[in-house]
Design goal:
Number of helices: 1
Radius of gyration: 16 Å
Oligomer: single chain
Order of helices and strands: EEEEEEEEEEEEHEE
Largest sheet: 14 strands, antiparallel
Structural class: mainly beta
């Protein structure tokens, strides 16, 4: 891995690194896969990584405790839709009653648009619909235990002028070719009422959540 310098000195647990892309048989491969390691970042460090933050509602780690615990990209970090969309891998933990919301292809202040929310309330995951409300996607994956680290691999996919979300409750490197090749193998999937991919920003709400890293790259799904 090679550390990328964005005008600030990289430090252990608060840096950006480039990774080898994960190949895709649909030829949706972007030349870079980028991991943001934020496990030791202070809120004030985020600007140096290319993000604006509501620093008074975030704590070192990086964690937050309310719907105001928000940070979002200052510029374009999502992949062009011509690349089939953007994959997001998140490593996180939740407090009891907490949630982590990830926005992709979004805009505005506060950030809004296509989003995926993970909660500890049973087996449910949610997506943001056209009205900005969160609807249940799936009850087919295991419940999340508070104060336990999890990794989710999430595709915000785009093809033929349509957009959808699918995800696997594991690291992207652990998703098998069989799982990538069949919609029947997507534990989490939502194809209807996804807000239009009209922005170029990524953002997070840490409402009782700790986010230790996130990775941006090409989609894993080999079905479009």
């Amino acid at each position: 891995m090679q550390t990328l310098i964005l005008g600030v000195a990289a430090k252990e647990g608060c840096s950006i690194q480039s990774l080898t892309p994960i190949s895709n048989t649909l030829s949706y491969v972007h030349p870079a896969r980028t991991i943001y390691d934020i496990r030791n970042c202070s809120p004030s460090d985020l600007e140096g990584l290319g993000f604006a933050a509501n620093t008074s509602h975030l704590e070192k780690g990086l964690s937050g405790h309310s719907s105001d615990s928000i940070f979002s990209s200052l510029g374009d970090v999502v992949l062009p839709t011509s690349n089939g969309g953007t994959n997001l891998e998140v490593s996180f933990s939740l407090k009891s009653g907490g949630s982590l919301t990830a926005y992709i292809y979004s805009s505005g202040t506060p950030i809004s648009g296509p989003a995926f929310r993970l909660t500890d309330s049973g087996k449910e995951q949610f997506y943001s619909d056209m009205s900005g409300n969160f609807e249940t996607v799936s009850k087919g994956t295991a419940a999340l235990t508070p104060d336990t680290n999890y990794v989710y691999c999430i595709d915000f996919q785009y093809a033929n002028s349509e957009q959808w979300i699918n995800a696997w409750p594991k690291a992207c490197s652990e998703v098998t070719q069989t799982e990538r090749n069949s919609m029947m193998m997507f534990p989490v999937m939502q194809m209807m009422s996804i807000p239009t991919y009209s922005g170029n920003r990524i953002g997070f709400i840490l409402n009782g959540a700790k986010l230790t890293s996130f990775t941006i790259g090409s989609i894993l799904s080999q079905v479009d």
